[in-house]
Amino acid sequence: MSKNAYYEDVKIIKKPLKKRFKNLFIFFICIITVIGVVFSSIYLSDALSVGNISSTLIFGGTKININKHLYFAVTLGEYSEESKAYEVATGSTIQGASGFIWYDKNYFVIGNIYKSYKDAESVLKNLSDSNYDVNIKEIIIPKIELNFQEIDNKDVAKIREAFNFIDDLYNSLYNFSISFDKGESNNFAISSEISSLRGDCKVHISNIQNYINKGVDLQKIQDALLKIDELLNQTILKTIDNSSTNYSLKYAISSIIKIKYDLYNNL
């Protein structure tokens, strides 16, 4: 008897390949739709609570969330005595370092601050033959979560812009410093650019003051912006004079990060 048995009343039905792909496509569409609904419900929860969805979509919600991030400082020594740190800092400015002193249990003399470890490591290697005890110090900017339910989304967007301004300010000053060191920009051009940034800073100070007058607790943010305003003013004067443009820009970079560090830790 043949090993193959055939039964006339039994049929094997296979779905066409095209139909199977269609069913799989529908399945993925359903999954994406569910994820979209969940995301929308979370993102628009603030908007629904205040009855203004369009405002949330344009300006964002009433929350400001910024994740933890790092900067990397190339240090020229760690000292227990402030006087010794100042002595080293003063000498380092002659070689173009910032000469900024960062206190964290001990006194650290900062050469410059970088956004990536790779950049800091590259500078560290170049300074390996120097007389300084060079190292890399991590500067941790903590996560912040703020919620301003008492003011409109449009106003919260302006507060968010103030935080963005501080971040962008670091980038601008860092680029100015690199450009000046390479001889691509002169002190007058950089001074003009910093003056423009100071004008932007004053706008943010004014905006924050308006919300403080409405009873919103933003004093810490305004205090940070006022420190930045004064720092920019001093940096403008030093770049115009051009006797210390090189290290003044690096000092301003370190100062901005310190102001930001203190602000985020106090919020």
Task: Describe this protein's structure.
With 267 residues, the protein is α+β, with helices and mostly antiparallel strands. The protein contains 9 helices and 6 strands, in the order αααββαββαββαααα. The protein has helices at 17-43, 45-50, 53-59, 82-93, 117-126, 153-181, 187-213, 219-241, 245-266; strands at residues 63-66, 69-79, 100-104, 106-114, 135-141, 144-147. Strands 3-4-2-5 form a 4-stranded antiparallel β-sheet. Helix 3 packs parallel to helix 6 and helix 8 packs antiparallel against helix 9. It is globular and about 65 Å long. It starts with 16 loop residues before the first helix and ends with a helix. 27% of the residues are buried. Residues 1-7, 9-13 and 42-59 have low confidence and may be disordered.
In short:
This protein is an alpha+beta fold. 61% of the residues lie in helices and 15% in strands. It has 9 helices and 6 strands.
Spatially, the strands of the biggest sheet line up as 3-4-2-5
Largest sheet: 4 strands, antiparallel
Q: Write the element-wise H/E pattern from the N-terminal end onward.
A: HHHEEHEEHEEHHHH
Given helix and strand content, the structural type is alpha+beta
Parts with pLDDT < 50 across at least 5 consecutive residues:
1-7, 9-13, 42-59
Our Rg estimate from Cα atoms comes to: 28 Å
Helix coverage percent of residues?
55-70%
- What is the number of strand segments? 6
Q: How far is it from the N-terminal to the C-terminal residue, by CA?
A: 87 Å
Overall pLDDT score: 85
Large-scale geometry: globular
Strand content: 5-15%
Counting H and I runs of at least 4 residues, what is the number of helices?
Answer: 9
